[in-house]
């Protein structure tokens, strides 16, 4: 029985087509680089239909045989993660020979915890040049021992650690989330606002750029009294914009000390019209930078400022515009 | 006064353990059991997914599905099949292959964990069960169950929601065992993905991702034996050989063969399509026309204990792929093991040479099923049905061998010699027609007539034309003729001149 996520991922919405086009460009860009041996080109959560894989096939980035099976020589070039056995079988039936890891991402990465990592073949397959996490769901969060925890972003941090293992692999993260934050508990809401307020105070340049994303009122409220801001009651667009500031900032914080220079290629919002879900999507390049060992803070601040420079939106006709 | 007692004879648990381990001689033999299960479930489409690394193997079909109740009944006690409780045929009328109730246990030889997802048409229940075969490898004492029943593996199941219109069964083999995984995966492609037949790798040729037409060409042109293929392809083709899938396109060449055409249609009418990693699975049988022709014979056996039909086919020279040298018996469209190269124990002394030219397929009726051993690849040779089939087949084979000898050897040899004789007379005529010969017209006509008559010449006459002479014999003949036709002085000159010429 197809799941709602399968319908969503297979949908032919113009906005989504544009997003898939961005993913494709990243795959093409990474395809010309020479990664260490046995590194997959593309790791994805494609759903039963595998629309993004279809694009790779159309663009000859994933060669097929005369029967439509993935060419044997390319068998580990594209790796799909699919926790549902039915969806995994449907996907592999569509692309025989495709490597499908039949478990959820958090299972593959051995939970969101920071201590256990995949081993053996799973570890190899996680270190892809392009990782596409098209989550379709809102960013779940909780406060644990006074700390904000975002399971999805913890997985990103784990992926960054895996890619950073010797020999490191420069990579691109394509991340998509539902932009609605009504699901957040109150403590998360307040904690997230405080988190941004501290960072605005700490880095005025970042704060300045954030004004343009959040709008002066919301930005001011966060700085003045973060405890009074209720993001869940903000407009849906404001919730999207909040995530556009929060997510890349949080990722940069988590990974810069590990040696990654995070370059934001796109920071976009879309959806909301014609009853379509409001989404936020990012394309982030992770480039290994030896300055991390001595100048991690510099690396982090550069990443932070760049995170808001490529912000924009995709309209209902699929047209992309930057602010 | 005597006391009556009665009871049920039960099989000791350990025997079941031994049996299942010794049943299957290859991963293909296990896999075909699962594909035949799909056939018995009235599936028309089956997908087998093995590549890229056989970490997990999927057999997915659109058959009638399995309910929780049916699953429990099937797995409650191994070797008690309920498939034929009501009928020997499936709801769509297919003769069911499974009988003994051990098909699913084949999975135990391939993997540690098997997951089954199944739903029946009209049901909202999705059965999801995980069978843990690893349990069986635990210490004996920890595996015992109440009484004599022996647990091959424990299972845990859930009932979930399914769409009413859906009906399918997915069998997922997880944690595939090391050696089986290596065989399933085969050797890696080393070269480019070409469209030619140059698909040979270190492990042999591969049929992965190939169309049936491509596979047919490969079998006809390149493959001599199983060892020419990588283990992935061997497994795939062995499964194809066993299960009720159609034949390869143009499997018997371009020549019109009504008998084979009929067989092709009969198998296609079963409407059972299996894809193996996206490639249409076919019976790996090719009967190419030999350069010197072939002989095809319809076989029909109607005995008191068994009936069978099929064909015998021979071509001049060794038949390739060599796995076709033999007879393959099918019962209910599923093969009994591989081709038997001994032709059911045919006398070795008779026609040894020709046996390598011959292949046969026999579809036997259900009475032979009783002779089938539990391994489904051998037959009990003392069973009346087998004995009768063997005798009738051997009679047919003996007669066929005589026909093959005559048509492909004796007759062909005579025809070849006749052609050579005609050419020889033609060359003689050409010499006689040289201007320097200045022979009378009547002599030339005589030779021309002789050339035309070669077609009807006897073996002796042909032998006379093609006879080879030594130099001394030739000299003697020439001198005899010269003595009769030349004057003594001319004779002496001719004899001396000819001797010089012949001695160089």
Write structural notes for this entry.
The complex is a heterodimer of chains A (323) and B (504). By secondary structure, chain A is α/β, with parallel strands linked by helices. Helix content of chain A is 44%, strand content 19%. In chain A, the strands form 2 sheets. In chain A, strands 3-2-1-4-7-9-8-10-11 form a 9-stranded mixed sheet, sandwiched between helices. In chain A, strand 8 (260-270) and strand 9 (279-288) form a beta hairpin. In chain A, helix 9 (204-214) crosses helix 10 and helix 11 (236-255) runs antiparallel to helix 12. Chain B is an alpha+beta fold. In chain B, the strands form 3 sheets. In chain B, strands 5-4-3-6-2-1-9-10 form an 8-stranded mixed sheet. The chains are: A alpha/beta (323), B alpha+beta (504). The A-B interface holds A 1, 63-73, 75-76, 85-86, 89, 92-93, 96-99, 102, 121 and B 47, 49, 51-53, 55-56, 58, 60, 115, 117, 126, 161-163, 166, 170, 172, 188-189, 191-193, 195, 206, 208-211, 214, 275, 277-280.
- State the separation between the terminal residues of chain A, measured CA to CA: 41 Å
Alpha-beta classification of chain A: alpha/beta
Q: Give the fraction of residues assigned to helices of chain A.
A: 40-55%
Number of DSSP E strands of chain A: 11
> Major sheet of chain A: size, sense and barrel closure?
9 strands, mixed
Give helix % range of chain B.
25-40%
Oligomeric grouping of the chains: heterodimer
- The neighbouring-strand order within the major sheet of chain B is 5-4-3-6-2-1-9-10
* Measured distance between first and last alpha carbons of chain B: 113 Å
Outline of chain B: elongated
Number of helices of chain B: 15
């Amino acid at each position: 029985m197809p799941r709602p996520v399968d319908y969503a991922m297979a949908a032919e919405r113009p906005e989504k087509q544009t997003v898939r086009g961005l993913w494709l460009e990243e795959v093409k860009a990474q395809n010309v680089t020479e990664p260490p041996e046995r590194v997959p080109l593309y790791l994805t959560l494609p759903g039963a239909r595998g629309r993004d894989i279809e694009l790779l096939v159309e663009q000859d980035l994933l060669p097929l045989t005369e029967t439509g099976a993935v060419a044997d020589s390319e068998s580990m070039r594209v790796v799909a993660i699919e926790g549902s056995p039915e969806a995994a079988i449907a996907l592999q039936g569509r692309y025989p020979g495709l490597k499908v890891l039949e478990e959820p991402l958090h299972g593959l990465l051995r939970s969101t915890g920071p201590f256990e990592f995949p081993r053996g073949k799973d570890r190899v397959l996680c270190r892809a040049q392009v990782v596409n996490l098209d989550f379709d769901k809102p960013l779940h969060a909780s406060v644990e021992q006074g700390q904000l925890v975002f399971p999805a972003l913890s997985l990103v941090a784990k992926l960054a650690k895996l890619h950073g293992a010797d020999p490191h692999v420069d990579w691109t993260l394509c991340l998509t989330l539902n932009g609605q934050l009504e699901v957040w508990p109150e403590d998360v809401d307040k904690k997230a606002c405080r988190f941004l307020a501290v960072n605005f105070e700490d880095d005025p340049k970042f704060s300045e750029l954030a004004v343009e994303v959040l709008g002066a009122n919301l930005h001011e409220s966060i700085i003045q009294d973060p405890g009074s801001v209720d993001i869940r009651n903000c407009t849906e667009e404001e919730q999207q914009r909040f995530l556009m500031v929060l997510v890349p900032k949080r990722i940069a914080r988590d990974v810069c000390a590990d040696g990654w220079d995070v370059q934001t290629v796109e920071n976009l919002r879309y959806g909301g019209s014609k009853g379509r879900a409001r989404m936020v999507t990012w394309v982030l390049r992770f480039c290994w930078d030896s300055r991390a060992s001595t100048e991690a803070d510099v690396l982090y601040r550069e990443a932070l400022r760049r995170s808001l420079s490529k912000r924009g939106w995709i309209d209902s006709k699929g047209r992309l515009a930057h602010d | 006064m005597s006391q009556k007692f009665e009871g049920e004879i039960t099989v000791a648990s350990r025997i079941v353990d031994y049996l299942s381990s010794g049943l299957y001689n290859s991963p293909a033999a296990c896999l075909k059991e699962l594909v035949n299960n799909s056939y018995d479930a009235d599936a028309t489409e089956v997908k087998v997914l093995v590549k890229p690394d056989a970490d997990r193997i999927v057999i997915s079909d659109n058959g009638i599905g399995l309910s929780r109740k049916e699953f429990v009944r099937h797995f409650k006690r191994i070797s008690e099949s309920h498939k034929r409780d009501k009928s020997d045929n499936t709801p769509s009328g297919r003769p069911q292959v499974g009988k003994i109730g051990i098909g699913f246990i084949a999975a135990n030889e391939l993997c540690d964990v098997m997951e089954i997802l199944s739903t029946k048409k009209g049901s909202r229940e999705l059965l999801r069960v995980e069978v843990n075969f690893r349990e069986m490898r635990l210490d004996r004492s920890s595996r015992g169950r109440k009484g004599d029943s022996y647990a091959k593996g424990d299972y845990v199941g859930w009932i979930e929601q399914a769409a009413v219109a859906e009906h399918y069964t997915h069998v997922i083999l997880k944690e595939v065992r090391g050696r089986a995984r290596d065989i399933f995966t085969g050797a890696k492609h080393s070269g480019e993905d070409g469209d030619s037949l140059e698909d040979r790798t270190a492990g042999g040729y591969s049929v992965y991702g190939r169309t049936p037409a491509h596979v047919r060409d490969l079998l006809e042109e390149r493959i001599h034996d199983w060892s020419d293929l990588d283990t992935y392809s061997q497994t795939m083709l062995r499964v194809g050989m066993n299960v009720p899938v159609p034949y390869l396109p143009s499997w018997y060449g371009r020549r019109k063969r009504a008998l084979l055409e009929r067989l092709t249609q009969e198998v296609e009418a079963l409407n059972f399509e299996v894809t193996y990693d996206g490639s249409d699975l076919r019976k790996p049988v090719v009967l190419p026309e030999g350069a010197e022709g072939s002989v095809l014979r319809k076989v029909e056996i109607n005995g008191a204990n068994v009936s069978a039909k099929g064909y015998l086919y021979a071509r001049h020279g060794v038949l390739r792929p060599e796995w076709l040298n033999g007879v393959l018996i099918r019962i209910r469209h599923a093969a009994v093991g591989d081709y038997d190269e001994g032709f059911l124990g045919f006398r070795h002394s008779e026609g040894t040479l020709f046996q390598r030219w011959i292949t046969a397929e026999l579809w036997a009726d259900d009475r032979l099923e009783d002779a089938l051993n539990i391994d489904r690849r051998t037959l009990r040779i003392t069973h009346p049905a087998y004995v009768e089939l063997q005798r009738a087949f051997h009679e047919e084979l003996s007669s066929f061998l005589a026909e093959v000898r005559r048509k492909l050897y004796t007759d062909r040899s005579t025809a070849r010699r006749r052609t050579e004789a005609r050419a020889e007379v033609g060359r003689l005529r050409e010499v006689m027609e040289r201007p320097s010969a200045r022979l009378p017209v009547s002599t030339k006509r005589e030779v021309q007539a002789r050339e035309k008559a070669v077609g009807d010449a006897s073996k002796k006459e042909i032998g006379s034309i093609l006879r080879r002479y030594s130099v001394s014999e030739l000299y003697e003949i020439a001198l005899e003729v010269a003595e009769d036709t030349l004057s003594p002085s001319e004779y002496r000159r001719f004899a001396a001149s000819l001797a010089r010429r012949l001695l160089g």
